[in-house]
Amino acid sequence: MATQITPQAIKAAAEAWVKKAGGTALGHEKTFRFMLDHITAIRQPATAKAPTPQEAFVKRYLPYARKTEVATGISAIFIVAQAALESGWGRSSIGNNVFGITAGTHWTGKKQLRSTIEYHDTKTVQYPEVISITWDAARKKYKYLVKRYFRDYDSIEEAFLDHAKILSLPHFAHAQPHKGNPKAFAQALQAGSKKYATSPKYAEVLEKVIEMVEGVVIQ
């Protein structure tokens, strides 16, 4: 049976070494303790690095995005990036609605009224509640702070399925040839008369998020 490593055992080993090799017990005790600490440190399993919020988000949603890619051909990287952008990497998602999909008059499912920012060319666009309208000189559009309804899904799977249906609508048909290229698809969705988002810088910001997602996936 192995001797238990205790302070007493270390001291006893040091005293025994004094008799054999000379020197002071205190000096040998310090040496043995240093060696023990070093060996213990080596034996300790490496502490796993905690994932960043971006890594955790990609890990959680990439499997759903890949299923959608198989079914629709739309890049999984694009899908995860759009979910990340719309939900602030999951910090501001509306339940399972990580894509920020709004609930229009034809939506019959559950919904939530939330604050959001939209951009328009005029000051006459109607919303359930308009909090403020200001001119954004950089974007050359009116910036609306409003409350509007967003879809509230019962599951992540339902959200991803509905998102895929929206991207496959006829008014996004011009973007379909680019669906396998994340950045090109982002640009195309904002290039038609019907855009996915009202922000004029949406595609530009989405491209940066796409790069971040790609960086996580290739690690």
Polypeptide structure, described:
The structure is a single chain. The protein is built from seven helices and three strands. By secondary structure, it is of the alpha+beta class. The chain has two domains: 7-43; 53-217, Lysozyme (Orthogonal Bundle), CATH 1.10.530. It has a three-stranded antiparallel beta sheet with strand order 1-3-2, with no helix packed on it. The two termini are 46 Å apart. The model has no long low-confidence stretch (mean pLDDT 86).
SSE layout:
Layout: H1 7-21, H2 25-43, H3 53-72, H4 76-87, E1 111-120, E2 129-136, E3 141-151, H5 156-167, H6 182-189, H7 202-217
Spatial ordering of strands, largest sheet:
1-3-2
- Give unreliable regions as ranges: none
What is the CATH topology assignment of the largest domain? Answer: Lysozyme
Fraction in beta strands: 5-15%
Largest sheet: 3 strands, antiparallel
Oligomerization state: single chain
Note the gap between the termini: 46 Å
Q: What's the number of structural domains?
A: 2
The general outline is: elongated
